[in-house]
Specification:
With 343 residues, the chain is an alpha/beta fold. The protein has helices at residues 32-44, 103-111, 134-140, 160-170, 196-213, 242-252, 288-293, 300-306, 318-335, and strands spanning 3-6, 21-28, 49-56, 67-68, 78-83, 86-92, 120-124, 145-149, 184-192, 257-260. Helices cover 29% and strands 17% of the residues. The protein is globular.
Length: 343
């Protein structure tokens, strides 16, 4: 398998390529705030086209101008025209999978359905905002399956986690071969239709992993259906579910992977592509002043989120946005002198 590592300091330096691209995400509940900011950031960075948003529950309040869309051949589908040449297609989902474990299934259903004319497809978690020019992402997938290094990376060739993956999956008919010490985050993936079988590999490995974690309706971040009691923690090889299966898929698949480093998701200082709000509280839930009193200064992703909440989709009043930005700036100033120590 060929691997490409992209250490670009300034995204968009590659020769521009013309590609038919679409974006997708999955959300439920309050994560609609993140979807709106993600969509706004995509628009600001030059993306034009369709965003496919799979969801459970109700549509968000800001999507009050959606209309039924029978052309998508998806029961209950609606479309919201965000701006000229830019739409969100809301696709209701009935799966009982936790959305963390549904990503390859959703992308495959899009490639084979509503996005059948799409040549490249990008998945973003709804707690990500895009800060790099969209042209870079289209160019990136010409290098291979586009993936970004996780905060928990690296994992060496004989790390217990990798070793147990190989043993476990070999018993189920899969052969894994070490490719790279990089451990990727599952919050983003981009690929062309020609590499669709990577998604099939990821999907099959998740299905093979299901019995180990108690079913794909469970994950480590779920309060309603957490992992089985003996499947928690650092020492269990599938406790990160979608990420573990995705990284195992890299070893099981024979094709080109294009890695970007930790700076891509702002896990490391440098110019980011798509700051990712790991953990809780999410930027739309966080109170910067309360956070700094506990020693936690605002993150880059918190600052970026609040720069993408007003247009073309508006999720908060202008007064609230101004107050929140002021709170972030004030908390950041305090954070220069006072913050929780790292051990």
């Amino acid at each position: 398998m060929k691997e490409n590592f992209i250490p670009l300091k300034k995204p968009g330096l590659l020769t521009n390529l013309t590609m038919t691209s679409a974006v997708c995400t999955l959300f439920e509940g309050h994560y609609h705030y993140g979807v709106a900011a993600l969509v706004n950031s995509l628009y600001k960075q030059g993306f034009r086209g369709s965003v496919f948003a799979g969801y459970r529950g109700n549509l968000p309040f800001w999507a009050n101008k959606t209309i039924p869309d029978n052309n998508l051949n998806w029961e209950g589908a609606t479309t919201f025209d965000v701006a000229p040449e830019f739409q969100i297609h809301f696709l209701p989902l009935s799966t009982d999978y936790h959305f963390t474990n549904y990503k390859p299934d959703f992308m495959l259903s899009l490639f084979n359905g509503p996005a059948s004319a799409t040549q490249s497809l990008f998945y973003f978690d709804p707690d990500i905002v895009v800060t790099a020019p969209w042209s870079f992402f289209e160019e990136w997938v010409s290098c291979g399956v586009a993936l970004c290094e996780d905060v928990n990376s690296p994992l060496s060739e004989h790390h217990p986690r990798r070793t147990v993956w190989r043993r476990n999956f070999s018993e189920k008919g899969f052969t894994l071969k070490f490719k790279n010490i990089i451990y990727v985050n599952a919050g983003f993936i981009g690929l062309t239709r020609q590499k669709l079988n990577f998604l099939e590999t990821w999907q099959k490995l998740q299905e093979a992993m299901a019995s180990e974690i108690g079913g794909l309706n469970r994950c480590s971040i779920s309060e309603r259906l957490p992992l089985l009691e003996n499947a928690h923690g650092t020492f269990f090889p599938f406790s990160k579910t979608d990420k573990d299966a995705l990284n195992a898929a890299i070893e099981a698949w024979d094709g080109e992977i294009s890695f970007f480093g930790k700076e891509g998701m702002a896990f490391k200082s440098d110019e980011p592509l798509m700051p990712h709000a790991l953990g809780n509280p999410k930027p739309w839930q966080s109170n910067p002043l309360l956070q700094i009193l506990n020693g936690y200064p605002p993150r880059l992703v918190d600052k970026k989120y609040w720069s993408y909440v007003s247009r073309p989709i508006t999720t908060h009043s202008s007064g609230f946005i101004r107050r929140r930005k002021f709170s972030i700036a004030f908390a950041a100033l305090i954070g220069r002198f006072y913050r929780r120590g790292e051990f």
